[in-house]
Amino acid sequence: YHTLRVILGDQLNAAHSWFRENDQGILYLIAELHPEATYVKHHIQKLCAFFLAMEYFANALKSANHQVCYLTLDETKNQSLETVILTQAAKHKVTTIELQRPDEYRVLQQYRSLESNTTKHSVRVVDSEHFLLPFDDISQNFKPQHSVRMENFYRKMRQRFNILMDDDGQPEGGQWNYDSANRNKLKTKDLNAIPAPLCFQHDVRHLLERIERHDIASIGRAEPDLLWPVTRQDALNLLAYFCEHLLPNFGRFQDSMTSQTPHSWSLYHSRLSFALNSKLINPKHVIKSAITAYHENDDIDIAQIEGFVRQILGWREYVRGMYWINMPDYKEQNALQAERDLPAYFWSGDTKMHCLSSAIGQSLDYAYAHHIQRLMVTGNFCLLTEIQPKQVDEWYLGIYIDALEWVELPNTRGMSQFADGGWIASKPYAASGNYIHKMSDYCGSCHYKVKEKTGEQACPLNSLYWHFMVKHRERLAKNPRIGMIYGNWDKQDDEQKHAVLERAQWCLDNIETL
Ligand code: FAD
């Protein structure tokens, strides 16, 4: 072989230009790596999904007559990525090593070290050919340590790629954003109509056994039949299912939460994030397919399709830009100086707060929670109780099927914990129990009373919310979007204010018992 090409677990892009040529002098390397499986404690379904997707990808390349070296944990043992690459390069006597630009800073550092440590090979880095915004354009759209609003970025992306735009340059439907139509709560009558999620059944017994044999610690429910998409065909099937059955109600119920149906965990969400982040499927293709469905199906209105496109063309590309322009500094941010430890029930779901136990429980069961559960249930709780952002990041990075640092970190540390002081969010996503009650049916069957602020049975979020707002008043009161909230607080008499803060302090002091 003259060239070794490295494919990482999140670079399973069959449409990459690498695969257009069929040069028998090129060897593709795909390797299960112990350090990648342990840099954080991952959900067991996430480990299985990545390893199985890699295995299938290697097989697909072989079937297309490419030369592939697939190494399992048995072969790579505890070796680093760099060691594995250099060992294979030496073994096969290649002169060139080719890499795709990694999406995570951790891997970039390893690639930099590889480049500086190898004298025998020429190293070439190519694009991963996945995102819409070219990597080199990130610096024109984002500035380090500066707030950039998603909405402005999103509008530019709509125009640049001519997505949901009329011929006269106006947004289709006349409005850029239909967020206000995306806030319906699921009523009892809506529950029976929620479609079952499309789940796959991939036998992963051999992987469970291998992962255990290599002492890789994990979290979550182990399933011998993996329900996540691990091939391009799976991803296309999931996308087709989404467009037909879920997109007609995607925006409408995007923010709502329920624990009353067997499909509560998935609702109208696409669950395409793993397929997208491992690059089994291309974001442009997902957007195009959804827009075609919108044009062909009268049941899908503009608020549904715009809501979906905004997530992928807007949020997903935006957080990637924010990540790269701010790394490695992003990882050090703790603007609100939050230092408390994450309570143990984040690893068991064992709390009397029904919203938390539902969101955590389903995360452990499925390696999945939808956006509002991540942001407004677990995220909000960590924000209000001032959990150290590093611990919050590690939890999110481990537990979710789609968690890769480039997308997890800006969402967690930035959007949900406000630890960046507002680069991403214009104000903290802090909420009392009232918000959860408005958007879900969690509170009805909760041990705590959502209408109460004080007393032993009061929803902890109610007092914690005011504790948070009062504590950070100096920083937050200047914000015109928040200032008026303090008027409500100031109107209450001193005794009531004292009782609320006392209840909050009790909750903080006894956080493990909530
Ligand atoms: P859908 O609701 O069907 O949305 C469609 C697609 O839009 C998603 O697949 C995803 O690719 C994209 N998308 C939607 N929201 C976002 C967003 N805020 N940022 C980036 N892309 C978005 N997403 C991840 O992919 N990986 C993560 O590690 C991750 N961590 C998160 C942590 C926190 C605290 C929060 C609040 C959000 C996080 N998200 C993350 C974003 C979002 O919650 C998930 O992308 C989404 O829930 C995945 O489920 P889905 O595919 O069913 O999404």
CATH C-level class of the largest domain is: Mainly Alpha
Which kinds of small molecule does this entry bind, naming each only once? flavin-adenine dinucleotide
Shape: globular
Spell the H/E element sequence: EEHHEHHEHEHHHEHEHHHHHHHHHHHHH
Structural class: mainly alpha
Q: Look at the structure and give the mean pLDDT.
A: 97
Largest sheet: 5 strands, parallel
Structure description:
The chain has 514 residues and is mostly helical. It has 3 domains: 3-126, 3-Layer(aba) Sandwich (Rossmann fold), CATH 3.40.50.620; 135-210 and 229-326, Serine Threonine Protein Phosphatase 5, Tetratricopeptide repeat (Alpha Horseshoe), CATH 1.25.40; 344-513, DNA Cyclobutane Dipyrimidine Photolyase, subunit A, domain 3 (Orthogonal Bundle), CATH 1.10.579. Helices cover 46% and strands 6% of the residues. It has helices spanning 34-38, 44-63, 73-76, 81-91, 105-117, 138-141, 150-160, 188-191, 205-213, 232-246, 273-277, 283-296, 302-326, 354-366, 371-384, 389-399, 405-416, 433-439, 460-471, 473-476, 483-491, 494-509; strands at 3-6, 26-31, 67-71, 96-100, 122-126, 202-203, 225-226. Strands 3-2-1-4-5 form a 5-stranded parallel β-sheet, sandwiched between helices. The longest helix has 25 residues, at 302-326. The N and C termini lie far apart (60 Å). The protein binds flavin-adenine dinucleotide (FAD). Flavin-adenine dinucleotide binds at residues 269-273, 276-277, 311-312, 315-316, 319, 370-371, 374-375, 379, 396, 400, 402-403, 407-408, 411-412, 415-416. It holds the Pfam family DPRP. This is Cryptochrome/photolyase family protein.
